[in-house]
Design goal:
The structure holds 2 protein chains of 2 kinds.
Chain A lengths: L1 H5 L6 H33 L1 H4 L3 H50 L2 H6 L2 H43 L1 H48 L1 H6 L3 H26 L2 H27 L6 H43 L19 E8 L10 E8 L4 E5 L6 H6 L9 E6 L2 E2 L5 H7 E4 L8 E2 H5 L8 H10 L3 H6 L7 E2 L8 H13 L5 E5 L7 H14 L4 E5 L3 H4 L4 E6 L2 E6 L1 H7 L1 H12 L6
Parallel strand pairs in A: 3-10, 3-11, 6-9, 9-10
Antiparallel strand pairs in A: 1-2, 1-4, 4-5, 7-8, 11-12
Chain B lengths: L29 H10 L3 H38 L5 H49 L3 H6 L2 H43 L1 H48 L1 H6 L3 H54 L6 H23 L1 H19 L10 E8 L2 E4 L7 E6 L5 E5 L4 E9 L5 E10 L4 E6 L5 H8 L7 E6 L2 E2 L5 H6 L1 E5 L7 E2 H6 L7 H10 L3 H6 L7 E2 L8 H15 L3 E5 L7 H15 L3 E5 L3 H4 L4 E6 L2 E6 L1 H7 L2 H6 L7
Classes of the chains: A alpha/beta, B alpha/beta.
Amino acid sequence: MIKTLSRCIREYKLPSLLAPVFVSLEVVMEVVIPFLMGKLLDNGINANGGEGDMAYIVKIGAVLAALCVLSLLFGVLAGKYASKASSGFSKNLRHDMFHNLQSFSFSNIDRFSVSSLVTRMTTDVTNLQNAYQMIIRIAVRSPMMLIFSVVMAFRVSAKLSLIFVCIIPFLGAGLLFVIKHAHPIFERVFKTYDKLNRVVSENLHAVRVVKSFVREDKERDKFNTVSDKIYSDFVSAERWVALNSPLMQFSAYAAMLLISWFGARMIVGSGATELTTGDLFTMFSYSMQILMTLMMLSMIFVMLTMSRASGERVCEVLNEKSDLSNVENPVMNVKDGSIEFENVGFSYANDKNKLCLSDVNLKINSGETVGIIGSTGSSKTTFVQLIARLYDITTGTLKVGGVDVKDYDLETLRNEVAMVLQKNVLFSGTIKENLRWGNKDATDEELVEACRLSQADEFIRSFPDGYDTYIEQGGTNVSGGQKQRICIARSLLKKPKILVLDDSTSAVDTKTDALIRKAFEKYIPETTKIIIAQRISSIEHADKIIVLDGGKIEAVGTHEELLDHDKIYSEVYYSQVKGGKDNG
Amino acid sequence: MAEARPVRPPRGPGGMMARGMPKKKVKKGTMKRLISYITKGNKLKLFAVIVCISFSTAANIASSLFIQTLIDDYIEPMIKAANPDWGGLLGAIIKMAALFLSGIAATYIQTLIMVNVSQGVLRTIRDDMFSHMQTLPIKYFDTHTHGDIMSHYTNDTDTLRQMISQTIPQTVSSAITVVSVFVTMCIKSLYLTAFVVASVALMFFITGKVAGKSGKYFVKQQRSLGDVNGYVEEMVTGQKVIKVFCHEEETKKEFDEKNEELFENAYKANKYANLLGPINNNLGHLQYVLLAVIGGLLAVGGIGGLTMGAVAAFLQLSRSFVNPINQLSQQINAVVMALAGAERIFELMDEKSEDDDGYVTLVNAKIENGNIIETKEHTGHWAWKHPHGDGTITYTELKGDVVLDDVDFSYDGEKTVLHNVSLYAQPGQKVAFVGATGAGKTTITNLINRFYDIADGKIRYDGINVNKIKKSDLRRSLGIVLQDTNLFTGTVMENIRYGNLDATDEQVYNASRLANADDFIRRLPEGYNTLLTGNGANLSQGQRQLISIARAAVADPPVMILDEATSSIDTRTEALVQRGMDALMKGRTVFVIAHRLSTVQNSDAIMVLEHGRIIERGNHDKLIEEKGKYYQLYTGAFELE
């Protein structure tokens, strides 16, 4: 995990190194300044039996002032570089996550939910940013302070310092004990947090259901249960952590009293030769410093273990490898719009025993119009997504333009195989901007042309701002049918050799639907058109109609053939005719 | 469903999870309110905390004084003594040990209490927030993004934790130390105290400046974070479209720009925040040096009766004075964060609840000799209990008679989306709404169950103005099945029982059978005990819809609203679902909204809506005969979207 994360430091290596350097210098200053302050007290103010040495005071005072300025400078620089390094690190984390995300295949995307990706890229990264800043500042500072203080303490009196040798392991063991007990509870707390999120999220999504069934109280109970669980988990975890300060205080006070007792014995026993009262003072301040830094270290340790969960979540995204990749020397040109399925089988789990599409054998000629029909869950969408290699097939071969889809450059293939997805999305921006996703160099005339084909031109012009109308996120300010037609126009702008419409006219009325199909026949006859639909009327004039059932091709044929021979097809047909003319 | 939310959430910074701070300044009174939350019900505990902190602070101060005593009273005399008496020192050390132990115990107790207090306050805030959220009108949910609301419960609540558990005890202990040291300092030398106070004031001033700067960038950082959030959310939602259009590079580029801006703001915010420590530390040091020089000069000049010894003691004191103040200034960031979070929390809590002036309630009833008598037990009959101003109570049988009389409605108070809508549905009738998206179909049903309130006109339910009916009772009498099925995490059984919490297992089975769902449920791996997660992700769309129909069936309401309940299902599955629906609709007043005309053909009345007006009404045959809009729709001559 650390290896993966540290790869994101990159151009912020220098600040990441400078920060600890300046922190170290700051620590040196912090050790030197109190030392000189002691001197100022001993040799300046208390000099000459309490008379004071003004010249010495001014001299050391000037040195101290200079050191303070230096220390301030080091501190400011350390803070600056630490914040630069940590915000840079988090920037790179987000950058890498987002860029890796863009390389994800459809099956990669399916593995992460939208909200979890958003949380990973913000909350989790922020946690790591804070942890990183802590590492390069405090995690450098505390051990250094510890070493300095121990060394200084030994220099003053090695014998008395043996007290630390006893107390530090005691304190360390105590802190470890606390962490060991608290950590699993903290981990549990995070899982309960997920539950809390789930309850709130379900409540928000289903707010109409909750209100219509008047289940506010039940939801409240549900929430309170989770909320209580968080409370009790946190309390029991923090009860362990609460031992930290008494433990630290116990060690500090014990050290102090032991030093007092043994220090006094040494001073008195040796007649103040082995140890002076001034030394005793110094020992006290070092003992405080040593224990404080240990305390800091334990806090860092607790916080780092808490951010470990975030690190793992971020790494999951960073380490997710796209399972689709270009072959060497990919084919950069798609010859025509012919498609050939040979014994194709597919499984989302890539498991030959769990195929959700199997034994597909089919040849589609360039320029043909193909209709696909089948009930929910019959793998219609899966079937067409294979053509643009949005997923890799599990068994068999799939050729487009006579070449195996795996041999194409992915971008080339997808530019020639235009998919209008079932769950389609418009992005916030003007209609023009959305259309130019299809071809960013398209002229205004080309945009209008594509919209005419998809029967979108007329309603777009009826908007006050026409093609410059701003589309809200998700396209919520246009109707379902309008959205679908803009999406079709967007795909047409790619001038693809194969056009796939995955239930893309379901919200468009039958008449407009027919107009779109007519326009296709007239203006893009060369393009292979694959149309998934629920309405028979959308596909009955196709050259070929494929009936899918339970992941298998049930029948292929023209409308008339299927009506005569295929039970499912005729059943669907008659259910729609019987129910009156089906209307969008 | 789109027409249910014509009110767009105000687009602004802070998509989901954005931690807020929409304005630069935190609202006044937020701090006060937060503190009252902390003290509410915790007064005794907080008092105990203060006592404990006083104890441990006293132990701490005693420890810093002990060294002097040790040297002056014990070591110095003992060095001079020929035969030192160790008993006295031992006694003093034991006395100190006792004091320290009680200090340690006080610290432990104080921390334990604070853990309870802080987590308790967080829990209360969460629960209050959720409780209040349940009372908010649908409009609130329609105009706020889910991610943003959710972030109140996690991010915003979390900002409070550090402040409650650390800042408060720190403030108390620092205050005690500062006050006691201050008093001692004043006794030793007023001049020097004045100097220390002046320099501390300077430190405060600089801290305030720097914290202000850092706060400014902190706000900016939260905004950029919101921006990045929003972008990631939108792009990830449309990730498959990005792939299909090979739009990855452009997306990356745009992301990088936003990411860079976030970096700049985060960098600056942290840079200024990191300044606080070194500045205060070194100002403390500088102050010490200057104090030594000034004190020395005063002592040499004999001004103010100072001796060098007194200066030395004073120097020690000044450090004890500055240190706690430094520690406090480190807490400033925690406070700023907490205030930002608290403000958002209180904003949600201050959202206005749904009005409910209704006083007509729904009660169990039995009919004896044509009289309606209220009963406690469930009889299968219901009645509206209508108390009148003169103290009399009348009962009206619940039948499901709905009348809309000349209703106007507007979501935002400006654009009227329903004009002069009048319609009636007699008990047992099926009324259908047909029309384009935005014509007002869903809006009408939103008015019947009072998700929204009408601007003008009247809606009567069994002859009672719906405004007089208690909202919860009104809604209990109305069943609803929506296009978007919303199932909860839990078993199938629990999900169906959601419609009627008192339903027996047998009633659940019956409802499922009615909805045509029993068969497939029994074929699930665990039958009715199959656990559903992620809105029933392990079921097909049709199956989910069947469960939601069963859920409505078990509630057994006299009036049903079916809003595009079958639109996202293919025609073959629909036939299956339709059978369930037909069984459910029998004997009830039903409002149906559907895209497919086949679904609504057999309705008693079909209302064709256009731009918020009913333009045609009648049954199928009548409307076909009229050769109007419905006829055009039916024959496919007109576009419906």
